[in-house]
Design a protein that fits this description.
Distance between the termini: 72 Å
Bound molecules: FE2/S2 (inorganic) cluster
Largest sheet: 5 strands, mixed
Structural class: alpha+beta
Radius of gyration: 18 Å
Number of strands: 5
Strand content: 5-15%
Strand order of the largest sheet: 2-1-5-3-4
Length: about 170
């Protein structure tokens, strides 16, 4: 009878919000759990753990993905971005400022995941209309806001980014 391997953890190294993070993952450990427990990223929220709510959304090599549907080991050697890396500590980026301006959050539990989806989305769809934005947001559940403020915030940022830079 083969000997039971009681410690099936393996070291993996990811770039998380620009810093190199090495931690240990069992083969079936979820990336969401790795990011919270090994990398200490509290902006990765966990709701349903089966791909429905969108709370755990991060960007993996730039693409928005559900970290609860990704194994930590699949992210070995790759680049992970979370809402904690959107701006310097104590600062907000344009999307975060727009969410605040348009009251796009209340309790904030869904917000980090939505920000990561929206940041990927706006890079791929720089000039969306309201229907496009609502379609993108349909992949996220928010129990508080009714979504209207988020839609306005995302459209506002798209407009801002499309405007020529008037400072130069
Ligand atoms: Fe990942 Fe809900 S916790 S989609
Ligand atoms: Fe509370 Fe979205 S702001 S769940």
């Amino acid at each position: 009878m083969p000997k039971l391997n009681r410690d099936a953890r393996h070291p993996i190294t990811l770039t998380v919000d620009g810093r190199s993070v090495t931690g240990y993952a069992e083969p079936r450990m979820l990336l969401s759990d790795f990011l919270r427990q090994e990398a200490g990223v509290r902006a990765v929220h966990v709701g349903c753990e089966h791909g429905v709510c969108g709370d755990c959304t991060i960007r993996l090599d730039g693409k928005a993905v559900r970290s609860c549907l990704t194994l930590a080991m699949q992210a070995d050697g790759r680049i992970v971005d979370t809402a904690e890396g959107l701006a310097e500590p104590g600062e907000l980026n344009d999307l975060q400022r727009a969410f605040r301006r348009h009251h796009g959050l209340q309790c904030g539990y869904c917000t980090p995941g939505i920000l990561m989806s929206a940041s990927d989305y706006l890079e791929r769809t720089p000039q969306p209309d309201e229907e496009d934005v609502r379609d993108m947001l349909s992949g996220h559940l928010c129990r508080c806001t009714g979504y209207a403020g988020m839609v306005d915030a995302i459209l506002d940022v798209a407009d801002e980014r499309a405007r020529p830079d008037e400072t130069g």
